[in-house]
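Why does residue order matter? Because the sequence determines the fold. Keep that principle in mind as you read this record.
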Amino acid sequence: MIFPRSPALSPSARHPNSVHNNRMIAATAFAAVWLLVAVPVAAQPKCTFPGKTNICRSPNGKWILHWQQAKPGSEHVLIAERVKASSLHLMSFKRSIDVLWSPQSTYIAINDHSGSSDTNLFVVELFSASIFIVDNDFQRMLNQRRYYENGHRYFNARRWQTDTKLVFEVKAYDAEPGIEARGTFVFDVKSRTVSRKD
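Structure:
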């Protein structure tokens, strides 16, 4: 006697749970990729010196920033120390600074609040201790005279877009109310270029 052949079951019919698991894995992977794209890279808050703590650790845990308090006749000092290695004297400052690490701990952006009328912005490459003055490249790359016609000018690091691209804001105003220049820009450390942020 010949029995009719049963139709072959698909893999999903044989193992319905495996299909569910595969869908869950795919959904989780999609969510992870979406978070990487949607969430800003540099969510780490800035460290302030002098501040509540004397230490600011890098995201990768290999560097520590700390400051030495000013002594009579001298300024505060910012020091970078590589864990279990030597330390670097990065810069001196008069009043206070804010520091923002790049995601891979290659650079730090430093806002130097040197006076009540201006704030300077520097980017430091840790391994070489090279210091880039963002204001210099800002003037070289862009013709933005309106930012230099006012008595108060502030460069402010906002966040790291990538490990080599810093988003910063420039704001300038004077004693006369209603006159203010403000813009957001991107500083590319590798190419030393500044561009407007759309």
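The chain is about 20% helix and 40% strand.
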